[in-house]
Amino acid sequence: TMCKVLIFGCVAAVILMSAAYGAPLNKTQKAARLEASILDLELLKNIDNNFLDFYTPNDRQECNHTTLACFLKELEVLKQDVEEDKQQTVINIKKNLEDFMDPNFSNPTCKKCEANEKKKFPEFHQEMTRFLQSMQK
């Protein structure tokens, strides 16, 4: 299955690179980026990181933007702390998800990132995976 993941990753990368930057993403591109992010996230699953705590949002639908922003912020923390070979994976996830952000989004009822519970990486990883899967629906 590793081969399949690699092949899909390459295909996804080609699709993503051929996407016009700056243009809004269409459904197919969004689906490909989400899928690629979920697969990349899977590659990070076994990171041995028990010393860092991550703010782990678990807000649902109406706060998607703030939830995503928080996950991206915490990935930046993770990137500083993983081996070089994993850094690229973290960067890929961030690149694939940044286009889902809406800089004009504001919802005062959504929690600030720092208001979320801090959790260890395995739980953070699980929540983020769940969140991305919910975005696929």
Average pLDDT figure: 81
Oligomer: single chain
Terminal CA distance? 24 Å
**What percentage of residues falls in helices of 4 or more residues?**
55-70%
Order of helices and strands: HHEHHEH
Which CATH first-tier class of the domain at 53-135 would you pick?
Answer: Mainly Alpha
The secondary structure category is: mainly alpha
* Individual helix count: 5
Can you count the beta strands? 2
Largest sheet: 2 strands, antiparallel
Q: Might you state the CATH topology name of the domain at 53-135?
A: Growth Hormone, Chain: A
What is the compact description of this entry?
With 137 residues, the chain is mostly helical. The chain has 5 helices and 2 strands. α1 crosses α2 and α2 runs antiparallel to α5.
Structural description of this entry:
By secondary structure, the chain is mainly α. It has a domain at 53-135: Growth Hormone, Chain: A, CATH 1.20.1250. It is built from five helices and two strands. The protein has helices at residues 2-18, 27-43, 64-79, 84-98, 121-136, and strands at residues 54-55, 118-119. Strands 1-2 form a two-stranded antiparallel sheet. Helix 2 (27-43) packs antiparallel against helix 5. The radius of gyration is 15 Å and the shape is globular. Mean pLDDT is 81; it is low at 1-21.
